[in-house]
Amino acid sequence: MNDIKDYSYEELRKILEEEGFLPFYAKQIFSWIYKKRVEDFDKMTDISQSCRAFLGKNFFFSTLKLVNEETSYDGTRKFLFQLDDNSRIETVVIPEGKRKTLCLSTQVGCRFRCSFCVSGLAGFKRNLKVSEIVNQYLYVRDFMGKNSITNIVFMGIGEPLDNFENVVKSIRIFLSPWGIYFGKRRLCVSTIGLLPKIIKFYKLNLGIKLSISLHSANYQKRLKLMPGTKDNPLEELISTLKKRSKKDKFPLTFEYIMIRGVNSSIDDAKELANLVKGLNCKINLIPYNYSHFFSWEVPSQNEIEQFKEVLKKQNVFFTLRKSKGQDILASCGQLRAEFREVD
Ligand code: SAH
Questions:
Q1: Which of 51, 117, 281, 332 is flagged as catalytic?
Q2: Does residue 341 carry a pLDDT above 50?
Q3: Where are the domains of the chain?
Q4: Active-site residue, selected from the candidate residues 51, 90, 110, 117
Q5: Which residue's alpha carbon is nearest to atom 6 within ligand 1?
Q6: Which of 3, 137, 209, 319 could make an S-S bridge to 188, C-beta 3.0–4.6 Å?
Q7: What is the CATH class of 65-342?
Q8: 197 vs 74, 126, 192, 200, CA distance in Å?
């Protein structure tokens, strides 16, 4: 038996064709599952009996098991899911004005162990399947209502480009006009900057946004903060991004966590401005979200203001991100997929 939500539209179409069924049934099946949210082949009434029998014999519908759901005072919601092998992942919905951003996990654990992020603390277990990625979206949409999600970011647990094939396939399902039909520009993949995978990703021309977790413009400092980036030299990364940004009309995003006394000085800001010169980009400054697992500290107000001043002077486009969902450990770098008793 195969999980039907592991298949892209093109793959499903091919299987149907090979089995001698009308290939356009793939459109209908996609529409039943992703638009009408019907997960029962017998209810797919515009598909022939014999095809429904074939589907029923060969495919099943997986669902995620909700273990816990918490809501922050600021409206951020966190879902803890259990998978078939008892692994756990987390999915977050972050409301901000009209925007409601769904933050998806792509792996169980993470192998990159950034020095400020709890997602890698327990190491890496496995990649998520396509269905497990898509099901996070479907579950939350079913739970919170049809228009509850306006944006999707691959910024939960894991490194999306380390689970390349499944993440790309899930993106194809999100974008498919026969399926979820999510707008390209409202999807964003975040990465620590795995260069070969970025090049491969760009070649696919999916048209979705890419965000690079930078955190320092200084190669050595960055390596200390993010040891997992060691095979991806910063200079080469930036020159690849520069070439690409000339083609793309929309700006590239950099995430920059500000940690007190580490990467938040005036010199750090100057180095950053220098690095991104000539790049059509936006810097998201994120004050470090405190975790008792590490000895890093949140930046002082003074550091933040001075840093912003330098970027302003150098005409670097930036925003200072407000942290959301801290009280329920749902902010960037706080996802660990552990069950906590809620008082
Ligand atoms: N592995 C990918 C996808 C996860 S995105 C990546 O790193 O880009 C999660 C984002 O939260 C990244 O930008 C990450 O650097 C940031 N983050 C991790 N720990 C954080 C912390 N303690 N405070 C603020 N941001 C953090």
A1: 332
A2: no
A3: 2-60, 65-342
A4: 90
A5: 191
A6: 209
A7: alpha beta
A8: 35, 18, 11, 5
